[in-house]
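Thanks for the sequence, V.! I ran Leucyl aminopeptidase right away. Repeating your input here for the record:
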Amino acid sequence: MIPDFASAGTPATPLHLVTPDSLEEALSALPAPAEAWARAQGFAAKPGEVLALPDAEGGLAAALVGLGDAAAARRGRFAAAVAADRLPAGTYALAGSPSPAIAEETALGWLLQGYRFDRYAKQGAVKTALLCPEGVDAARVQAIAAGEALTRDLINTPASDMGPADLEAACNTLAQRFGARMAVTRGADLIAKDLPLIHAVGRAAAPDRAPRLIDMRWGSEGPALTLVGKGVCFDTGGLNLKPGSSMGLMKKDMGGAATVLGLAQMIMALELKVRLRVLIPAVENSVSADSFRPGDILHSRKGLTVEINNTDAEGRLVLADALALAAEEDSALTISMATLTGAARVAVGPDLAPFYASEDSAAAAIAAGGAAVADPVWRMPFHEPYEAMIEPGIADLDNAPSGGMAGSITAALFLRRFAPAPYVHFDIYGWNPKAAPARPKGGVGMGARALLAALPQLLDL
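Predicted structure:
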């Protein structure tokens, strides 16, 4: 659940965004009782600092929200969003003339701060509303917030209610809403349709959680854009069983699929002129007598053979078949998103979305897009000298090179063997381990807003 902006014309309390540099000017411009109150409270415009200001009769005259200084802005984002939960109930409107970037970030942050995952327990709804700031495209911001909410909902839903069939149902709901076309290949049909890696990873699951490939298409004009999302709805590790401490968050192992679907919703809601294709291999990596095994050599759709040295490196396998399928059609750009490696998290932590790009121009556009919309990304290298690490000798490829070095890079190189060019791959975390402004603890989209901002340049829209 995510709120909307207040209706235009609703009476609203002024909301002043204040930095330490603008503090004195902001306080001096207030009515005398409000100024005296702010000074008495020691308001210093620290990031996320919120103060309600009384009028002469003790009512609510205005509110101050601190943004912090430039260094604080570099250290965090969505500082003003916390006001949505900390201010008294009511409707607010930005006062003064904040820059377009700050106004848009505040507007989006306010909506994202109001997100609640209430499927299983009631959550206190946000009691404040914001008038969309002047000059901000309300429909665009609402579409972005709604796409992010979809991603969060899908990741936050436990595997008991988000297996492969449930992920398919979520895709079908999205397709019906926007008039997209959808085809699904399930179970043994994956073998008949030459998608053997997806079948191998998911075949150990119960029949009602059978593996499948979801193929959704939307749009009839413009450049072709293909999004591929890892949909491992739960990952036990397979026969290379994860320890309990590593299995606890594995409901989020379909975070790539969830993020792709959130981005797809944004694209469709904004009616971008693209021919969109979304491919999601949806599986559960389970343990049974039919599990694929360490030492097995599997065949892929592309014809390359893969030696299995760790059944817990399954995400790249299901993505490989989906990417090979994508490569059979011309596309202006193919993007994969996956909660793929712990190595990526060790490298950049949970806040940055690391990505790989086959073209420098695409990498520059994505980096610029991320900076513009407060969705931080970081380019990683397709370091070709490491290609030898994914070549085991008795098969074409190794799904889990030994040695523990460069795990995210070798996974990306593995995927590149199957993907068409130009190609971008995101190795995301998909989880916010600690609540932050506009980002509660739990599932979170990473990189989708950066990509949305970059698409005009990436696809020459």
